[in-house]
Amino acid sequence: MSKSLLPSRPDEKPTRKQVGSDSVKSEAGDSSTQTCGMNPPLPRGCRPLSHQVAGHRFGQGRLGIGMLQHMDGSILKPVQPPPRGGREVSFYQKTFDSKCEDPVLLTLRPFLPKFLGMWNTSSPYTDSYLKLEDACRRFRNPSILDIKIGRVSYDPDANMEKQAIETAKYPPLQELGFQLLGMRISGPSPNEAVFYDKKYGRSLTKGKIFEGLNLFFSGNEAWKKYIVKAFVQRLELILGWFESQERYQFYSSSLLLIYEGEFVDGSSDSDEEFIHKYRQLQFPTMHTDSYLATVRRFLNKNVDEENKTKGPNESEDGGNHGDGPRTQGSGDNNDTTGKDSSGKPDHVTPPQTDHVTPSSDHVTPPQADPVDVSSNAPTQTTTGHESGYSSEAESKLSSRRASERLQRDFVTSLNRRIQESARDYVKYRFPPEIVDVKMIDFAHVFEDNHTDDNYIFGLRNLIHYLRQVMKSC
Q: Polar residues bias: where (predicted)?
């Protein structure tokens, strides 16, 4: 079991080998980390996140606050100052709202760490944390890569000075569309992992980015080609979501790539031998992956609801949306409820509907019309205020119908892309649970009615470079 999941025994002294800065730090990080000021006290039942690869770390920086790991295995992320913090909290709450019926958000859930609620303390430094699942928890000896996606890393609210600062941080970002922020490469044992920080990532020019990606996969050379294939497939699913939706824009958001580093040797295996060996391994904390099944279930649910409103012989495009069998899995609910499987822990406020910040763009289930504007309704001549009310009701109805039409278009587009990915899944014939991909960091997510070309550009380029790595295996 990885030490990142269990505290060290008294006689253990694991080290964190840091590449990119001249220091060797304790992986536990709670006794040897220095800050510019005084360390804030650790909240009860928490410790610094030992396998963190990027972002603010506990005990560092001006305030010393950072990512924590709760004793129940979840991750605590400090809520940032407004407006960034409120924006990220609202995004998580809206996406994991138990009453959410928006297909755009429902099909995004499998790509995000589960939101387990808000966690509060009485600390003077920060009193509020996002409580999230630890995507690395099921891995024994994970290799982890944090990649910022998009050629523009500042949001629409940034002034000229902020734009210049962000652009100067990593000039190759304009061409690449992504940046390696930090990585953990698994060693022979969990206590021998090597960490590369953002200084290493910023040293990678466009000509050296292949070198950096190739280095990340050195944690499991024996099964490298299968791992890269699995990442490409999952990233293409995320790309399909972005190419289908026209509502959200993600700035300065990251992808977390995780793969297992503790396997038997499979360097000379055929595909069939690889799969056979993998299935013989017993991983108590790992479960059958329901990634594709979860997305399909959301799509099928929305297509069924749409077809109920049509005649028996009607369909959206003249055919059956569900080209393949409708997969039902007992584990799917764990991917969508946003609740901790161990029950509601102390100090945790589970996601509730009333936590969602109201927004004019928030899609809600269709509601009864405020007035009857059908052709069968009695007509009468109105003037002044009454006429304005009727016009307002018609405008709301028209807006709601436009929103429903956009949702149907999204479902149709994403369903087609999912079917294409499913065919690749069968073709590759590898177990996908050897890797995981999660989208993280949503302090700069905005709602705007157009395709997120910035994110799509970076994600397409990342997939392109990973295919190059795959060819070199």
A: 18-37, 327-336, 350-362, 373-392
Model pLDDT, residue 75: 96
Q: At 263, list the tokens.
A: 């396997």
Give the CATH number of the domain where residue 434 resides. Answer: 3.30.470.160
The partner residues of 77 in beta bridges, in order of sequence, read 130
Distance CA 449, CA 402 (A): 12
Neighbours of 306 (CB within 10 A): 19
Least confident of 123-132, 134-143, 225-234, 302-311: 302-311
Q: Which among 362, 365, 246, 245 is positioned nearest to 305, based on CA atoms?
A: 365
Buried b (16+ CB within 10 A) or exposed e, 140-178: bbbbbbbbbbbbbbbbeebeeeeeeebeeebebbeebbb
pLDDT over 60 (residue 418): yes
Whether the link from the prior residue into 83 is cis, omega within 30° of 0, is yes
Residue 311 CA: distances (Å) to CA of 307, 314, 405, 464: 8, 5, 17, 44
Q: Which domain holds residue 175?
A: 15-292+430-472
pLDDT of residue 158: 95
CA separation for the pair 470, 472 (Å, rounded): 5
In a domain, 362, yes or no: no
Does 207 map to a domain?
Answer: yes
DSSP symbols for 37-87: SPPPPPPTTEEE-TT--SSPBTT-TTT---BEEETTS-EEEEPPSTTHHHH
Nearest to residue 434, comparing CAs of 271, 295, 268, 257? 257
The mean per-residue pLDDT over the stretch 163-188 comes to: 96
Q: Is residue 315 part of a domain?
A: no
CA distance 2 to 366: 47
Give the model's confidence band at 28: pLDDT under 50 very low, under 70 low, under 90 confident, else very high: very low
Query: Is the separation of the CB atoms in 262 and 245 below 8 Å?
Result: no
